[in-house]
Amino acid sequence: MDPVTDTTMSLEVSGLAYAYPDGHQALFGVDLSVARGERVALLGPNGAGKTTLVLHLNGILTAGAGSVTVAGLPVGKRHLAEIRRRVGIVFQDPDDQLFMPTVREDVAFGPAAAGMRGAELEACVKGALERVGMAEYAERPPHHLSFGQRRRVAVATVLAMEPEILVLDEPSSNLDPASRRELADILRGLDITVLMVTHDLPYALELCPRSVILSGGVIVADGRTQELLSDDAVMRAHRLELPFGFDPGSVRVET
Fold this sequence. Notes:
It is found in: Cell membrane. Keywords: ATP-binding, Cell membrane, Membrane, Nucleotide-binding, Translocase, Transport. Residues 11-241 form the ABC transporter domain. The protein is built from nine helices and ten strands. By secondary structure, it is α/β, with parallel strands linked by helices. The chain has a six-stranded mixed sheet, sandwiched between helices. Strands 2-1-4-5 form a four-stranded antiparallel sheet, with helices on one face. α6 (177-188) links the parallel β7 (165-169) and β8. The longest helix has 14 residues, at 118-131. The chain is globular, with a radius of gyration of 18 Å. It starts with 8 loop residues before the first strand and ends in an 18-residue tail after the last helix.
């Protein structure tokens, strides 16, 4: 029998360990639970295992030990198609995600591949583009858009699949200040679970009430973002640095 879908937890990772074929051990037993609707930042130095963890969430990698479940469904071959619909990953470079002649066709690609057609498909595409403020660009070629606009379209391609979890890899990288703010406003308005992998610590503080720090293949800290970023010992131990003069304790954080 299939497991009963959990109505409160979007993600549960238990004892997750993974070694690459060359023998490099990337994860050493990760435990992580994320409630439905939470926005959580995944922080840590380069080489900490963040990408390896993310690639387990939709079955690109499979656990050497431990387990991953998304809304109660175990990540594995049996549920792979559904898991990949439920876990949408927005890559750091939107050009890795956009490959169709027009914005509309890019956003329609996933739902159409899943069997959606006609008016239902058009409504889905329109709705996803409206959520990211890009509906008026539906017929534009993606390569005619700015980098920030392409990133918003990449988010729309994932939202069109109505995922359980939106995973964002360095969402603020290469964005100008206005595009950075616009994306933050969009993400705050989404009624969806968000896991944000980032080195942009002020952006994590702005968007994610909770952060977890992954270092050396294990989670070394899990708590309120403002408190973690204010802990000098934790920050130094795991090679995390705030911009010069930035005081996380002075920021009013909205939850």
